Amino acid sequence: MGLFNRGFDFTGAPNIDEIVEKNKAYDAEEASREAVLQVKLLVSEVERLYMITEAMWMVMKKKWGYTDKQLESLIQKIDARDGKLDGKAKQKSGPATCGQCKRVLSKNRPVCIYCGTKQVSEEVFKK
Predict the structure, then answer these.
(1) CA distances from 122 to 73, 74, 75, 96, 99 (A)
(2) pLDDT confidence bin for 120, thresholds 50/70/90
(3) Which residue among 23, 107, 110, 119 is least packed, with the fewest CB closer than 10 Å?
(4) CA–CA distance, 52 with 34 (Å, rounded to integer)
């Protein structure tokens, strides 16, 4: 590239390829900054939830006498619900079924559309 040709072609028009590459680089940097920000926000939220969880556990131990061993046992039961002890609380996939007639339930109705049985969610922490 000659002394008079940096970023421009011979007619003096901007070199489109260089402009496109600079825009791609700028977009990548912006996406990187956004990702870093999101990670920082998630780390902060996890730390906050950890603190809340620890406080709740301290109250349960003090007020009702629960032990760490009981907590560990319950954590393992929750972890094993999906058939794998992997440290993740995955919910069973697939549609919910009626406890009475065993047919697939509508997500938007509090009663089974087939038999009329009122549906009661047993899982407060459903994802």
Answers:
(1) 20, 17, 18, 11, 11
(2) confident
(3) 107
(4) 27
